[in-house]
Amino acid sequence: MDRPLPPTPPPDLGGRDDVPPAPKLRPGLQLSDRVAFPPELPITARLVDIVNAIDAHQVLIIAGETGSGKTTQLPKMCLAMGRGAHGQIGCTQPRRIAATSVAARVAQELQTELGDVVGYKVRFNDKVKHSSYIKFMTDGILLAELQGDPLLRRYDTIIIDEAHERSLNIDFLLGFLKRLLPSRPDLRIIVSSATLETERFSAFFGGAPVIEVSGRTYPVDVLYRPPRDDETDLADAVANTVNEIAEMDPRNDILVFLPGEREIREAMGELEKRSLPHTLILPLYARLSAADQQRVFQRMPQRRVVLATNVAETSLTIPGIVYVVDAGVARVNRYSVRTGVSQLLIEPVSRASADQRKGRCGRTESGVCFRLYEESDYASRPAHTDPEIKRVSLAGVILRMKTLRLGDIERFPFLDPPQQRAITEGYRVLEELGAIDDDGKLTALGDQLGKLPIDPRLGRMVLGGRDEGALREVLVIAAALGLQDPRDRPQAAQQRADEAHRKFKDEGSDFVGYLKLWEFWQEARQRSSRSQMHKLCRENFLSYNRMREWEDIHEQLIRVMRELDFAPNPQNGSGEQIHRALLPGLLSKIGMWNPEARIYIGARQTRFMIHPSSALAKKPPAWVMAAELVETSQLFARSVAKIDPAWIEKAAGELCRRSYGDPHWEQKQGQVMAKEQVTLYGLPIVKDRKVAYARFDAALCRSMFITHALVRHEYTTKAGFMEHNRRILDEVQRLRDKARRSDMLADEYELWLFFDKRIPDSVVSAKTFEDWRRPAEARDRTVLELSLADILLEEAHELSPDRYPDQLVVGGATLPLTYKFDPGEDDDGVTANVPLALLPQLDPDVLAWTIPGWHHAKIDALLDALPKPLRKTFAPLDELGRTLAAQLKPFHGAM
Predict the structure, then answer these.
(1) With CB atoms 3.0 to 4.6 Å apart as the test, which of 241, 447, 465, 507 could cross-link to 474 if both were Cys?
(2) What is the mean pLDDT of the chain?
(3) What is the pLDDT of residue 6?
(4) In the listed set 637, 655, 673, which residue is the last one of a domain according to the structure?
(5) What angle do CA 41, 44, 50 make, to 5 degrees?
(6) What single string gives the DSSP state of each residue in 404-445?
(7) What is the DSSP letter of 834?
(8) Which CB contacts under 8 angstroms, 24+ apart, belong to 561-566?
(9) Domain boundary among 770, 796, 822
(10) Same domain, 269 and 323
């Protein structure tokens, strides 16, 4: 919906002598006279060129030097040419302080209340109305909005400021906007950058036009002033430099660039000791409250000394700065291939950043920049700061892209596409951490990890700390893993250093050693001054700077936990809780001791030793995990802890590989059991564990249950069908012995088929059988009962009692008969049980007839025993045998 321009008109520039004649606008393009542009800003001279280019092209690249006015004037130019009528003019800034301060400045120039025509939105603070025309925000806010508005319909113009910083957010936005352009031909994109790599931006957007705007600066002298030998640390060097400036010029303002909040606090403390007259010391960093941030933009009667991080390097213009003191370093997030963890390091800034810092003075008059390092150091530095995507773990990048739903990293249009090898490693790390499934989709755990603005490995440890009740301790350890080891071991004093560090060691865990060192430091901090802490560090061979960095990172993690409502554990976490929490982040760095080779076998058959500096080096445990594997003369594990391999299976989850062997029936268990082998990255973490096999092969278990439990009766139950079937089977066995023909009776397979037809596929064990049997027998009591007809084959009708009697009457005596079919044994055949008193009365010739069912077989045997000539005479013997069997009278004389 079209909207009119805001009604409150700022002063018009028309008629002023110092405004150059207006160049020609494109046909049909008009500029509102309600928006004024300061003539002293260099960008004002390019007003018509810029609006013409915005009107004619979807994408425009603005290359503006420091002080050109691009940050404040570009959104006003868009407003003046009618942009913002069909949607808001969105302006992104890398930092919250820049978004809020620039919004306030533009609102002031448009003579409107902040939050009305011009507003801003940053984390936890939204001052934008639906009716606002210009919206300043951090680039992270715009990225988050993509999830609910993937076509960015609420905007008709997007300005990406400070694009040269090449943060991940900026690269994400540039790639997304490039992909969006065909779907939004009405959208205008303006990429604003320092005069760095503008041609690359232009090529990235298909040859987008570039307009360069010069800066507005006065001469700036550069003085190199490296720290002196008597200056104990950076705070001392800064305070001395400010003091030297104050002696030369007691009036003009000073801007000091420092790497972080801790260094700002230390420098403030040192400056306050100097008691500089008529001087106000002001901090400036991203986390500072909005009210305190705004103080640096206000002119005051006292001289201001602004102590700032690199938030003051671009976008922000602090009025009145004549002197810059540049420490030459900044905190940089950089991925360590060695440790597999992103570390927040203090590094020298690039020449481009140093020049940006220099440009913060000389805005209103000549200035001086003091660099606290050598000129040769400056000359040896890289020309530009690496894009963030080149110095962070791609695991974190991929995780972020999945959280923001930006698609696959392989197909995303990055300005600097990452290498495939790094992408593969990034996916491997996320899989190890349980953040993605086999299809590369984000898991529930991955969704939680994506909300933690820290390295994924450290994030996994933090989640483990929360789950295991050891969050407080894990935050200390995770912070330590995010920096270089604070313990020093100089070549010339290794023995003394080892002795000093012994009190921090724990024989079972170097991670617990970190906790001991942390406790030592915190106790000392409460009772010691800064100079005393310096001395304490020297005496204990500790790096003071790295110890303070450890504190800084820990404070950042604590803040993140508060924002996410992660509560630290009220009681101390146990050693097991701590190490179980750390393990999920270090699964690829576990090892199993091989006593024969006297070396650890690690993931994927790597081989390593515990580094001699570890407390565990002399007595290697059976299983360890390590924070890092470092290759020097050989592969060494550093920061090591003893672990129980039983912890690994739970921590690794789906990463474990399982195999099963020897499935067998166990009557006591009432189910099929097997031996399970569990491995992780080739390491055997479980051997020959008995497990129920039904969940791996239900069909096999059902078949084995029928065979063993129902056919062979290797199963104890009170159910009546089982006793019934035993009686039937006993009778069948008796008939089998009588017939001396096993082929006439059903075998195990026939019995198996009987049960297979009756029980469902879900029956795989005694328990599942009983759950089915009870209701089944309630419906049909005989459902599982065998009958002779189920067991005897068709030929079995010949097994009549007349032919196979259970007793024999001979000479008036009744003799019980027993049958056994066991060729080769003495009792094979039929046995008559004769009382001893009757034995003399029995006629052996009569007994030789045996039973009627065997007469034919015995006659055939007698005929086969005849001499060969007779056999030929009586042939065919088979027919003769049947005739004789029918005519002979059994038990009358000898056969």
Answers:
(1) 465
(2) 88
(3) 55
(4) 655
(5) 135
(6) HT---GGGS--SSPPPHHHHHHHHHHHHHHTSB-TTS-B-HH
(7) -
(8) 561/462, 561/471, 561/475, 564/451, 564/452, 566/462, 566/466, 566/471
(9) 796
(10) yes
